[in-house]
Design a protein that fits this description.
about 900 residues; alpha+beta; eight-stranded antiparallel sheet; disordered N terminus
Length: about 900
Amino acid sequence: MSAVHLPWARVRKVALWAVAVLLVLSLALAVAAVWAVRRAFPQQDGALRLPGLTSPVTVHRDGHGIPQVYAKTSDDLFRAQGYLHAQDRFWEMDFRRHVTGGRLAELFGESQVETDSYLRTMGWRRVAEQEWQLLSPDARRHLQVYADGVNAWLADHDGGRASLEYTVLGLQNSGYTIEQWSPVDSLAWLKAMAWDLRGNMDTEIARAALLAAGLTRPQVEQLYPAYPYDRNSPIVDGGAVVGGVFDQDAGPVPSGAPTAPTSGGGQGGGGPDEAGTGGGGTVAARTVTELAEGLSRLPVMLGDGGSGIGSNSWVIGGRLTATGKPILANDPHLSPSMPGIWYQMGLHCECAFDVAGFTFAGVPGVVIGHNARIAWGFTNLDPDVTDLYLERVDGDRVQVDGEWLPLQTRTETIEVAGGKPVSITVRTSRHGPLLSDASASLRDIGRRPPVDPAGSPAGVAASPQLVPGRPAPDSGTRGDGYAIALSWTALRPGRTAEALFALNTAANWTEFRAAAALFEVPAQNIVYADVAGNIGYQSPGRIPVRGKGDGRWMSPGWDSAYDWKGFIPFAELPSVLNPPGGYLVTANQAVVGPGYPRLLTSDWSYGYRSQRIRDMITSAPGAISVADVQRTQFDNRNGFAPTLVPAVVDALGAATDPSDDARVTATGLWKDWDFQQPADGPSGSADARRSAAAAYYNATWRHLLAGIFDELPASYRPDGGDRWFEVVRGLLAQPGSPWWDRQDTPAVERRDDILRSAAAEAAAELRRDQGDRPADWRWGRMHILTARNQTFGSSGVGPVEWLFNADPVGVSGGDAIVNATGWDAAAGYEVDAVPSMRMIVDLADLDASRWIQLTGNSGHAFHRNYDDQLPLWRAGQTLPMRWDRAAVTDAATQTLTLRP
């Protein structure tokens, strides 16, 4: 058939028609996309009806969407707070309550069943339900009216009208229906907070895994050095417990007094090698590895419990400030997320509540901030509040001191989107839930562990006797033989929620301490300042008193001598008011000197951040201002570089080839480097030179750790945090230590060999990735932050990730630096922990206070306040933290009236 020839005019007409159709379709799709995104944006101006109010509530928002709420009663105030949190962050709230309730499979299907199994086994929601009964009538009322406010918003919003995430969720789970908010949902969120700030549980697992994987006890101990009290000061410099009360003015117990059993006794059993060194196939090796892998899959709400999760806070008395009144600073270091974990807000009423600060969407009140009289800030105390117990079990009974006692059991049903419900049986010993029941592989290991039933596996506290290949009796199919139980303070009901309301209304040191006494989990360092000029510190929390052992190793559950005997009385916990030095610094370092008679933990952060802050305060050339404090919060000095750089340079200088590339690079970049680590800087500028030096230093550090510790299991390779600063510091003084010898070469390497090879490998990496000119290298090209949506941000679907994630940005700082942008040297340079917010409170003029958070106040993708604070945060800038109503009104860009 011959070709068809159309007249040119007709071809042109058809083409124009086709183009027009495509344009119309594209416009329609664009309009639909904009509609889908914007229909969930909240009304923030004008008037809305909020049922249940007794009087109108006024909400002023500034250009960053930060609401200041004015009400007549506390009921109206918290009802409005619930409504506003739901307006801006309900998807985040809904996701969190599914986490805390072990109900993720209801949202995302079968892939989340094992995660739900772990969460149901721990029973966070069940504990929250018990806590509801312990709260005062006032606290329950605040939580209930907050929930009523959330539900008033839900009455008019569902699906895509609630948040864009629900539209995306509907593509895989079209039958999901949002349920009403409950006060217990708010309480359960505090359990997730406690879990992510749980202390040294991961360290306890790691010690057991390393020992069972073949390291000797002395080798493992070498990887967990003692806190360097001689270089880095604790929070509390003196004081002692006198008559059951901590007295800050009493002379301390001599520093040689032990705080816990030494590694040769107590929970360590006999000598360090009694557990054997070949336990790679033992129950301990497999159970702790499986447990760690299972727990690592749990959603990260605040942080993963790793070394990068910490915080800075400090308070400076008026004698040292430019205003003559205290200045208080706080910046909690948590995992980055989109939206950020915090929601900024002011809550004001004609009642006891007149407070501003950082809130959690889903929880009434202010978590960190100030009222008209006092200010407070938190850092993680990081005490040892979790212990793992290896239990001997047989069916639904457990062995204790030679007798068999019943386990508590219950059945949980996990609803699965698109699938059939799954039933699990949860067993609980007197120590806590059997986490090993949450994993099929752990159940199998426990059922047939290769150990003598009369002994115990490597990494367990009691003196074990391994019998490889000899199984325990197989008497069932649900983990009979051995199981792992978790003892954790947060699984015991408490009144932490009540502490928030008490903090919000405290007016002086006495009332502040009374509020702190209620703050049980997670245990926090709390700094204090007031308008009268006082500064202080209190360490609250429910911290166990153990029988035998120090909590550093897994305990034998069958021996009651290792049980908890109670908790440290609040009166004995360290507390300081108006210290002689005129300032207090907390940055997760040791709380108090080694003479303190109670064991808080052995696993502190090692004090590099805290000492740097102390040094900057004491070396200030004059009176300290809010601007000075802001510069300190953004300080990027690497505290270990002054130790490592000379060692590397000396090793390179001893090389036989004078033209060695690494030596030339190190000499050029590190000469006169002040150890600051900015992300970038204009070519030729001081910051550009610092950034190039930092890029090379951190690449060298990463390769150095890989070279030294190549014998460690892949799951326990160094993350590069300040614990490893101390480990490597010790090894630098031991050039012939076996740690320096690489396992993959026939030669016997020594210190300088590994230092040189690390520097050479770093130079090669940077030349490959950033070009041949070292002066052009930049730390910010490696040290990348991506604020990811907690649910869809790592979906693997590019367009979906684009919808919800912030654009990647290079950032300054690093691990164990005051500007603590953490990264994992075993994984790469990407940022995995950040100063989630920064706050500076000026007690001389509350309107001169400053604040910033990581991303923005809105939880709605593409909203103008979704990530508008990120550029300011990245540059170390802050926003005014307005307090006076006139200042708030003047800065308001939107005003919403909520009417009864």
